[in-house]
TrEMBL record:
Organism: Chryseobacterium camelliae
InterPro entries given in the database record: MFS_trans_sf
Name of protein: MFS transporter
Membrane topology note: Multi-pass membrane protein
Locations listed in the record: Membrane
Transmembrane segments: 51-71, 104-126, 138-163, 169-187, 199-223, 235-254, 275-299, 311-329, 336-354, 366-386, 398-422, 467-484
Keywords: Membrane, Transmembrane, Transmembrane helix
Amino acid sequence: MYNKGLYNDWVPKPVQLLLIVLLLAVVMPLGGVYTGNVSYVVNGTGAMTEYFMWANYATTIGMGACMPIVLRMKMRFKVRDKMTFLLVLLGLLSYLNSTTFDPMIFVFSSLLIGFLKMMVTIELFLPLMMMIGNRGMFYGAFYTFVLVLNQISAYYAAAISILYNWQHFYVIMAVACFVLALLHWLLMHDKYFALKVPLHYIDWLSVLLFVSAFMFSAYVFSFGKQQDWLNSKNIVNASIAAFVSFALLAIRQFTLKRPYISFKIFTKNNVQHGLFMLLMLGMFLGTTSIQNTFAVGVLGYDQLTNAKLNLLMIPGLILAGAIAIFWFKKEIPLKMFIFSGFSTMIGYSMVMYFSMVLEFNYENWYLPMFLKGYGMGSLFISVWFYTLDKLEMDDMLAAIGLVLVWRTFLAVGFFSAVYAWFQYRFQVVAVGDLAVYMDGMTITPQNVAANMKTIQLNAIIIAGKKIFGYIILAGLGVLIYVFTHHFGKERFEYARFVKILSGKSALARKRLRERKRFIEEIKETTGSAV
């Protein structure tokens, strides 16, 4: 017996929808680390922050590694058995994180959590997409819900860590997973989704190579600044290991009858341009590190106040989701929607460039965070839709893991690392430039120590402004690119126009005959008049 639904027939439809929303609310923000309480975990464990940056990247890498095999895993097991087992495992891993002080356990548990939660998420994608019908409208609703949820979870992670300690939030997430596992054991049907398929077709060596390539890359992005990049033997060795692992992964795919990853879709025009736009999205999202440095290091915000800043993005995210649903419902071309997303990201960068001063107050954050929320929501939805548009299901599933890792880890991780390097270099230059005010005339020797902090904070602001200035210039180039890109429309019209001019289409031949007849009639009429 097969059943493409999730729950028993006797469970009311509204209750089924409520359970799906509860699953999304618990599973989607679940991870090995939470951005809201990272500083408290660092203080509690005594480990370096870089380990938890690595763990944060590991969650995305685990999700990407699972994506190519997720459909086969879905069809291999009964939905109730699989969901219950996965939720129990996720709860145990979350509880493990609450009891350990070893940062490497956080890294590996984050990788496993990402891998397992993708299996749970795919069970929710299909019924929601069938319910909504339109893939674009589904993205508009789904990504808005998930992005809003991530901001809320980061805030509560910080709030609970302050009220109790950092371990409590992990325990709460573990208990939520156990409760959902019990509910779904009682309410889910005990049938297969479709024809049972074997697991021995999965090439686990390719999975291992995929994880190895990107985990070494994540190590480079996380520890590069701390170990002085190429001056560190560890960074050089990790870079070589990442390159070799990915090369072996690519070579192995050409030798397999059923490859783990397909590179075929990367020859498609929309995928290539979509990857470039996702890279540019990472350029803007990487500014979070500059924003955190300014908010915490310069303005002196605590972690809870800093987490509240992310809540200010929620109105922009909701607006982007509402516009996306309307846009896809009316089937309006994507160009101007994507253009509006990049425009608001540039607006966010411009506001930060002109407003970053020591007197910056909390109300000044409303506008830039609203713009950032709208830009992030609109680009997550529209660029992801455009990148995967008109792809066959098999090709998409075989390559979506790479695209996911590219969007969420490689693009953001690369630019975050670049910004960290430039911020340090620009800050050193700024301190040298500001040293002219420490000559004993402007600041007396007795007051040098009192003013040293102000000079250092101004150096941080100058470095941040410089980076935002370069981002604005690059963003203007992105706007020109988006405005001139065809998005699958102009190229078709151009080809049709060429056919009409050359008379190669049936419509063109008909128009030429009508034009010739009309000219002859004009000539006859003109001759009679003369």
